[in-house]
């Protein structure tokens, strides 16, 4: 018995460190993205997709990462085993634009800054929650933009864009968000 | 002559008795009351005393008692003369020391007899 | 003031108010409690809901770990004044965001770690713990703490309302019950008033008014009935009282009448006694007064006769003889008259002594010699063998025989006179029989009728012829009667007469009644001898009942009892009667016992009489000091009194006979006949003298 206990203790000591290791490995990259991943999860909790967005009640929520995947394994790990309204997450790295249609959430990585307008245009009208981390993302039509400020992650929300996407964003989320408005056709900027 | 001391407070009785006694041949000495009687008895030493019991001041019994108490006069026979026939008077007189008694009113003959007897007795003693 | 002794009115009001107050208090209390409990429950729910809302609202902030946002959400709680603190804890239990009502320091009791979900009452705070979730995922825990101020406020408000309400309703209850209690207390108070009036004025005609037909009503009915009963009884009582008073008055009147009658009787008695005494004195005096000059007449004539024998003529002698014989006759008459008067007056008493019968006969015979020879009669005397002593009044017996014999001598000429004496026993009693027989002229039948009457001689001619007073037989007859004997006569005219006298061998005295003062022959200093021969005891007491009792008791002891009611009477009577003993009361009107005693002891005649004090006053030393022999306190111990009386009686015997040197043993018999014993000894000495003379 003593040996088993010893074994377990050792395991218990080691495991966290392994995790830590993993974390440590990701720490440089993922503390920000860990948070962001968490945010994404939270967004999923606080956004309502229209009924037609899902084929079946238990269809997973597909998250497509557009561009370079800054999360690494973080997002997967964070979303592993979690459900929102009974739906699991499916993380896809989008290779082509056509894949966008299958997603419910599209994360536009900063690498796609140049293609931003195109990307947004592509998903217009589709019930897709666009999340970016490019400055001005929300102004340019993206729904949620993650902003890193003072080592804290904030997010901007473009309510109009959400409306266009037929997405209902919980007021709770909006309460925490910075509301961004697209500039008017006349080019006035309002924030 | 035989001397008789007559002690009697009543005048008439005194008179009658003394005269009759004298006629009988006795010599009579008279006392009016008890005191006189005592002193006369002591001085005269009579042969007999006739004592009226009812005397004033000192009654006959008392006188008799004194007489009998006195050595000088003890021997003298005393005849009490009582006015009452009451027994108690007799008794009183006898208790006082009287040798004889007679009742009044005096029947002289009877009295004479008694005197005679007392004198005889005295002589006999 | 004890609550139990409050008036009915107050009690009723108090009861009403108390009950209604209690009811009110209880009901309001229950409502209050119920409400407050519900309210608390409500508050709890409210806070719980609040926690849910806050939790919901801060879920996002917790999810995004947006601390400012979370704090901001919490601070919205500012509006809810009752929330003291709100804390959001992250899943690891650390505080994430806080809110405090007033930005003071952390209350000490704020939990640092999250607790179980739910609500708790910690002290005066309500604490709610709520899990903050987002779509099922626990993001943290919300802690809300409320001071429940709404509840406290509410409770206080309710309490004050309740109080006010109670006071007001108490006041109203007081008003209402004040009015309503009259229904009960009114009749009671009325009853009480009526009762008071009745007992104050003793007016039993008043009735209480019945108001309702309830228990009080029946009480009033009962009360009224009682009053009419009392009224009736009162009237009856008054009537009875009056009757009683009337009766009492009547009785008192009767008593006073009786007392009066009694007093009058007593007075009459005293008057009679006085009269009697006066009579005795009169007789005694007359006796003396009459005899004295006569004795002088007789004596002097005798003397003169003697003297005349010697000197004077025969005629003188004869004259003197006539004087003497007239004098003697007069003397005889006077004696007889006085005797008869005494007998008539009831003052003739017996002086008993034991004497030798034959001696007496001899004397009589001797004395009568001349009378016998006068008529040339022959005397024959015959005494029976058994005739010895007799106890009687010798003087009287002598007189009787003298009378009979002298009659025989007078009325017989050349005849024989015989005297026969013998003794017989009849009915257990010894009798002595004396018979005097003569061969004289005899007595006719007609003469016999009036023989023993006074002043009736056979006829007046005989008186002249034969002399005599004519009273002899009457006196003889009376004497015989006095001694309870009997006398009889047999006679034939011309053949002679025979008189027979029976006399008891022991003549007895009998109690005749209260003592009469008596004098024999020459009286002035006579010692009174009681007719009955009993000794006398004088009782001096102002209480009639005591006199009565003493009289009876002492009488039974064998004494003659004289009773008087006052000291003065007692002294007077004592002098006259010379009782052998006096009982004396102290408390008397007029002369009290002490002074009577002193006077008695100061009086030479009375000082020797023993006095026994019989009184309620307890002062023995004084009594004895003043000379009383004994001192008894009322109520008297009869035994003691009897013993004392007996003691004194014995004393007297020894005193009288002491000088006679008679052995005491001689006195043992014949105890009852006091004087008789004495006479025995006296007689003996007298006998001695007689015999010596012979």
Structure report:
The complex is a heterotrimer of chains A (191), B (125) and C (694). Chain A has 191 residues and is of the alpha/beta class. Chain A is built from five helices and ten strands, in the order αββαβββαβββαβαβ. In chain A, α3 (116-123) links the parallel β5 and β6 (129-132). Chain B has a single domain, classed as Rossmann fold (3-Layer(aba) Sandwich), CATH 3.40.50.2300. Chain B is 50% helix and 19% strand. Chain B contains five helices and five strands; from the N terminus they run βαβαβαβαβα. Chain B has helices spanning 11-24, 34-44, 60-69, 87-96, 108-124, and strands at residues 3-7, 27-31, 48-52, 78-82, 100-103. In chain B, β1 (3-7), α1 and β2 form a beta-alpha-beta unit. Chain B is globular, with a radius of gyration of 13 Å. Chain C has helices spanning 8-63, 67-75, 149-180, 182-201, 215-310, 314-344, 357-374, 394-410, 445-449, 460-466, 472-482, 544-556, 567-577, 593-602, 620-626, 638-658, 674-693, and strands spanning 83-89, 95-100, 118-122, 125-134, 137-146, 353-356, 378-383, 389-392, 416-426, 429-438, 486-492, 496-504, 536-540, 560-564, 581-584, 611-615, 630-633. In chain C, the strands form four sheets. Chain C has a five-stranded antiparallel beta sheet. The model of chain C is unreliable at 512-532 and 655-694 (pLDDT under 50). Chain B binds chain C through residues 12-13, 16, 19-20, 23, 54, 83-88, 90-91, 94-95, 100, 104-106, 108, 114, 117, 121, and chain C through 291, 295-296, 298-300, 302-303, 306-307, 351, 353, 395, 520-522, 525-527, 529, 659-660, 675, 678-679, 682-683, 685-686, 689, 692-693.
């Amino acid at each position: 018995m003593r040996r088993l206990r010893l074994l377990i203790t050792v395991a218990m000591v080691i495991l966290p460190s392994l995790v830590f290791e993993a974390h440590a490995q990701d720490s440089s990259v993922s503390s920000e993205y860990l948070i962001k991943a968490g945010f994404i999860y939270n967004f999923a909790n606080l956004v309502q997709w229209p009924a037609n967005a899902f084929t079946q009640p238990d269809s997973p929520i597909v998250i497509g990462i557009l561009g370079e995947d800054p999360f690494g394994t973080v997002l997967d790990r964070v979303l592993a085993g979690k459900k929102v309204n009974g739906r699991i997450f499916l993380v896809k790295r989008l290779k082509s634009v056509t894949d966008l249609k299958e997603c419910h959430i599209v994360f536009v990585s900063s690498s796609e800054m140049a293609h931003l307008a195109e990307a947004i245009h592509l998903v217009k009208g589709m019930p897709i929650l666009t999340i970016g981390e490019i400055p001005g993302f929300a102004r340019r039509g993206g729904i949620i933009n993650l902003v890193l400020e003072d080592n804290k992650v904030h997010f901007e929300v473009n309510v109009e864009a959400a409306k266009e996407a037929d997405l209902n964003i919980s007021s709770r989320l909006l309460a925490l968000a910075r509301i961004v408005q697209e500039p008017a056709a006349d080019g006035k900027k309002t924030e | 002559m035989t001397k008789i001391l007559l002690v009697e407070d009543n005048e008439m009785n005194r008179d009658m008795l003394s005269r009759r006694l004298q006629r009988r041949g006795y010599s009579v000495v008279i006392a009016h009351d008890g005191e006189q009687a005592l002193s006369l008895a002591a001085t005269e030493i009579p042969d007999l005393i006739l004592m009226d019991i009812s005397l004033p001041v000192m009654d006959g019994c008392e006188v008799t008692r004194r007489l009998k108490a006195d050595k000088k006069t003890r021997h003298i026979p005393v005849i009490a003369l009582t006015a009452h026939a009451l027994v108690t008077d007799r008794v009183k007189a006898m208790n006082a020391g009287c040798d004889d008694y007679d009742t009044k009113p005096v029947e002289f003959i009877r009295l004479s007899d008694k005197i005679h007897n007392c004198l005889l007795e005295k002589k006999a003693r | 003031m004890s609550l139990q002794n409050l008036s009915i009115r107050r009690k009723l009001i108090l009861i009403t108010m108390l009950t209604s107050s209690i009811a009110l208090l209880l009901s309001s209390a229950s409502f209050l409690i119920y409400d407050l409990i519900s309210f608390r429950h409500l508050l709890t729910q409210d806070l719980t809901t609040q926690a849910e809302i806050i939790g919901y609202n801060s879920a996002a902030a917790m999810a995004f770990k947006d601390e400012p946002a979370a704090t901001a959400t919490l601070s919205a709680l500012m509006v809810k004044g009752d929330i003291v603190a709100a804390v959001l804890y992250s899943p690891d239990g650390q505080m994430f965001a806080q809110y405090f009502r007033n930005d003071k320091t952390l209350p000490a009791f704020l939990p640092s770690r999250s607790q179980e979900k739910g609500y708790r009452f910690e002290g005066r705070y309500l604490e709610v713990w709520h899990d903050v979730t987002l779509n099922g995922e626990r993001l943290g825990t919300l802690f809300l703490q409320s001071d429940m101020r709404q509840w406290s406020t509410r409770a206080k408000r309710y309490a004050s309302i309740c109080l006010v309400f109670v006071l007001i309703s108490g006041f109203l209850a007081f008003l209402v019950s004040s009015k309503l209690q009259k229904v009960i207390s009114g009749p009671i108070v009325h009853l009480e008033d009526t009762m008071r009036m009745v007992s104050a004025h003793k007016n039993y005609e008043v009735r209480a008014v019945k108001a309702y037909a309830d228990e009080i009503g029946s009480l009033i009915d009962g009360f009224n009935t009682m009053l009419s009963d009392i009224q009736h009884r009162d009237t009856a009582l008054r009537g009875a009282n009056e009757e009683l008073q009337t009766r009492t008055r009547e009785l008192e009147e009767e008593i006073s009448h009786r007392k009066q009658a009694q007093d009058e009787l007593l007075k009459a008695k005293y008057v009679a006694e006085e009269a009697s005494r006066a009579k005795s004195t009169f007789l005694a005096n007359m006796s003396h007064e009459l005899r004295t000059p006569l004795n002088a007449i007789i004596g002097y004539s005798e003397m003169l006769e003697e003297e005349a024998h010697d000197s004077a003529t025969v005629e003188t002698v004869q004259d003197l003889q006539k004087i003497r014989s007239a004098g003697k006759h007069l003397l005889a008459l006077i004696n007889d008259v006085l005797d008869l008067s005494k007998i008539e007056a009831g003052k003739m008493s017996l002086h008993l002594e034991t004497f030798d019968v034959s001696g007496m006969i001899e004397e009589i015979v001797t004395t009568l010699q001349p009378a016998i020879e006068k008529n040339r009669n022959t005397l024959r005397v015959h005494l029976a063998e058994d005739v010895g002593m007799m106890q009687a009044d010798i003087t009287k017996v002598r007189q009787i025989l003298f009378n009979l014999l002298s009659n025989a001598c007078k009325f017989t000429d050349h005849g024989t006179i015989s005297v026969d004496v013998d003794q017989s026993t009849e009915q257990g009693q010894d009798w002595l029989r004396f018979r005097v027989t003569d061969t004289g002229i005899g007595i006719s039948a007609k003469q016999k009728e009036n023989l023993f009457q006074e002043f009736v001689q056979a006829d007046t001619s005989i008186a002249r012829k034969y002399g005599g007073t004519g009273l002899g037989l009457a006196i003889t007859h009376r004497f015989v009667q006095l001694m309870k004997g009997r006398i009889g006569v047999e006679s034939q005219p011309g053949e002679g007469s025979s008189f027979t006298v029976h006399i008891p061998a022991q003549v007895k005295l009998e109690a005749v009644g209260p003592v009469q003062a008596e004098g024999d022959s020459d009286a002035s200093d006579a010692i009174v001898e009681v007719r009955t021969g009993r000794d006398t005891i004088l009782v001096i007491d102002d209480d009639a009942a005591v006199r009565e009792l003493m009289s009876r008791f002492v009488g039974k002891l064998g004494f003659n009892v004289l009773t008087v009611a006052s000291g003065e009477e007692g002294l007077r009577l004592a002098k006259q009667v010379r009782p052998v003993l006096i009982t004396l009361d102290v408390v008397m009107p007029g002369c009290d016992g002490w002074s009577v005693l002193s006077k008695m002891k100061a009086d030479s005649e009375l000082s020797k009489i023993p006095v026994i004090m019989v009184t309620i006053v307890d002062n023995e030393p004084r009594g004895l000091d003043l000379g009383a022999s004994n001192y008894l306190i009322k109520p008297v111990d009869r035994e003691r009194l009897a013993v004392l009386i007996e003691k004194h009686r014995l004393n007297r015997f020894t005193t009288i006979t002491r000088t006679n040197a008679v052995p005491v043993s001689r006195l043992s018999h014949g105890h009852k006949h006091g004087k008789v014993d004495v006479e025995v000894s006296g007689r003996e000495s007298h006998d001695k003298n007689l015999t010596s003379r012979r």
